[in-house]
Write a structure and sequence with these properties.
388 residues, alpha+beta, Beta-Lactamase, Arc Repressor Mutant, subunit A, 6-stranded mixed beta sheet
């Protein structure tokens, strides 16, 4: 295989044009990932693949996601464990800051893939040789990731193929970014869509959608007073203390008594973090004011401050932890915070002691990854091995 041959035929040029057209049409969703994989396979042949959106703060994989490879028992857990806890080549968090944000295993290891722990402990077991990894980046934010594999014995990915994927990084990232901005529901479950409740000026529930009822059923059990209040207004929906607090704060903000945004973050009965937003609704002149309350899953960037506070981390320790999660080195953190590297090391040591970890990868896994592994695993769209 020559460096340029796979990229110069009319068929591959058409496939590349289709990919660019696909990225302009709408946000990333499961259908987008299916077609993106199918078209890219025409240009850059691969045996197996993994595609996922990523949280731009932590580079954690989130939905939508697609897997086109056989999944062995415990393999997903091992894969992400090594991504966070084992130092290796071409980690997504490193590629998120690299230029270009794409690299192949064979090129990075000078043709000796066994230098990679990931190759020795996972890929070789599945019969894979070279791996091409990429991060879909828009500006400085990483909105998606991809891994492509070829079978052992097949030609490694060429420099031209790496460059092609790098050139597609920004357009594909925009599709993932639009999905995040639109908060599109991608799991196919009704409860993944935002729940909406509307309250009158007295805080009495007037209406709600099916998704709101589904989310409310996942909230911690309300106290008896909440159930009693719901039945008094003829509603079967229990209005929890958190929701009532958001409604009250929204009223105060509307009246000019309070400032800011009415929002609360809490965990569902399953441990999943949710966000509750309150918004004043406008109506015709002199019409009584109403309040809309939206319930939806929390993003990692919204949950992280709560998690680090739970470990009693001070303000500086929280800043250092956030920058570690983004993959910054000690020198980079020192420069960002205008501190000496010695001071940063002291903060890192203090964070490790409070959280009970001994490495940066373990810290990120403990604070962030463990809380998103199950939702990601449940939402991944799996395709047969070699699917097109």
């Amino acid at each position: 295989m020559t460096v340029d041959a796979p990229l110069t035929t009319p068929a591959t040029r058409r496939a590349r044009a289709r990919i660019l057209d696909l990225t302009r049409k709408g946000p990333a969703d499961p259908d987008f990932l299916f077609e993106l994989s199918r078209q890219l396979r025409l240009i850059v042949p691969f045996t197996a693949s993994f595609w996922s959106a990523s949280d731009p703060l932590t580079t954690l994989a989130i939905s939508p996601a697609r897997v086109e490879m056989p999944i062995l028992a415990g393999q997903c857990e091992r894969y992400w464990e090594r991504e966070f806890l084992v130092r290796d080549v071409n980690l997504f968090r490193d590629l998120a800051r690299a230029e270009p944000p794409v690299a192949s295993l064979y090129r990075t290891t000078d043709g000796l893939p066994a230098r990679s722990v990931r190759y020795r402990e996972l890929h070789r077991e599945l019969g894979y040789g070279d791996e091409l990894r990429g991060v879909f980046r828009s500006g400085n934010a990483a909105w998606g990731v991809v891994s492509l594999w070829r079978e052992e014995g097949q030609p490694p990915f060429s420099i031209a193929e790496e460059k092609l994927l790098a050139d597609l990084s920004a357009p594909i990232a925009e599709a993932f970014r639009r999905a995040a901005l639109l908060e599109a529901s991608v799991s196919g479950e009704a409860a993944e869509a935002p729940g909406l409740l509307v309250f009158d000026q007295h805080g009495v529930l007037e209406s709600f959608n099916d998704q709101a009822e589904a989310w409310l059923s996942q909230l911690p059990a309300p106290v008896a007073a909440d159930w009693d209040a719901a039945h008094r207004v003829g509603s079967s929906v229990p209005i929890t203390t958190e929701i009532r607090t958001v409604v009250g704060l929204t009223h105060a903000i509307t009246a000019g008594i309070e400032r800011g945004v009415a929002r609360a973050r809490l965990q569902s009965r399953s441990g999943r973090w949710l966000v509750i937003h309150g918004f004043p609704l406008r109506g015709p002149r002199d019409a009584a004011s109403r309040t809309a309350v939206v319930i939806e899953p929390a993003k990692a960037s919204e949950v992280a401050p709560i998690i680090v506070e739970a470990y009693d981390l001070g303000p500086r320790e929280q800043q250092v932890t956030q920058l570690i999660a983004r993959g910054l080195s000690t020198a980079q953190i020192a420069q960002r915070l205008c501190l000496s590297q010695h001071t940063v090391r002291d903060y890192v040591k203090s964070v490790f002691e409070k959280v009970g970890v001994s490495s940066r990868g373990e810290l990120v896994a403990r604070l962030f990854a463990e809380r998103y592994a199950e939702p990601l695993h449940d939402s991944i769209a799996r395709a047969p091995h070699g699917a097109e």
